[in-house]
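Hi L.,

You mentioned the student needs an example of a multi-chain input paired with its predicted structure. This one should do, with 325 residues in total across all chains.
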Amino acid sequence: MTEDRLIELIEAWGADPSAFPEAERAAARAMLAAQPARFAAVIAEARALDAALARLPEILPSAALTGRLAASAPSPKAAASGFRLPKLAPWAPASGVAALAAGLFMGVMAAPAASASSDMSEVESVLEHALGYDPAAFTQVLSE
Amino acid sequence: MAFTSDLDQITRAAAGDPAAVRALVNRYSPGVLSLATRMLADRAEAEDVTQETFLRAWKALPGWEPRAKFSTWLHRVALNLCYDRLRKRRESLPGELPDEADTGLAPHEALDQAQRVSAIEGAIGALPERQSAALTLCALQGHSQAEAAGIMEISVEALESLLARARRTLRAQLLEGRTSS
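Structure written out for the whole complex:
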């Protein structure tokens, strides 16, 4: 520790050696204790500034501000939301029923044309058109 | 240990726990607001910066990884927002706010306590922004050297240099105030 370095420390960190960088603290304290008069003036100046800074009022947030800050945080519901299946609309089941009815209707209407070129029963023809496959053939595949 | 406590509160706040959110706000909003107020010398702007800082924090919490202390990260965000606002001020007032602003105190017949406080606050606000930040973080808020340097993303040696220049300017202000009173 040199005298110049000690003055630099006081001018930067203030009069209290506990604010100095830890690695230089002990040496600075020893030099100050050994030569108090040598550094009295620079210490006094630093102490005056430290006192002036300590007199500055604390800046605190208002309750309104802290309330706004907390309110801006994500809500528990939003924070917990991960992937979810989309919620079905109330009319979704009804639309499924309507689609099934429309399919059966189309099958009934188209069956006569198809049965003219084959020996399938009228009922089989209706089912094939309504379901999109031949149930008899499907049953045969299963039995094999 | 504060860091562990931070992690616990961050985890709970990220899950939307209102108590943890309030705890983070209560713990950190004074420091953020104080830093912004000293830097900007404008309470309303400082509150805006504080709100923006916390908004960014809430967005960052779900993916938060403790590579740095939350306090350091939060103050760094606030400081960078202050730098942005100061830069915009300079751009909107070209040539009127030089880096080395005139920080001379107005001569008073007798500075009473309130006037002296106001004068020192004004002098801090008129310091070059990095000097003002260093002084606020170390001398006014009591951050450790490592944490203040971390917030400012500079070395402790650079921090010391900024502090020395800031204090030299303020000492001159104090002396000028005394001799003119």
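You could point out the following to them. The domain at 98-181 of chain B is CATH 1.10.10.10 (Arc Repressor Mutant, subunit A). Helices of chain B lie at 2-14, 18-40, 43-60, 70-92, 113-126, 129-140, 145-152, 156-180.

Best wishes,
N.
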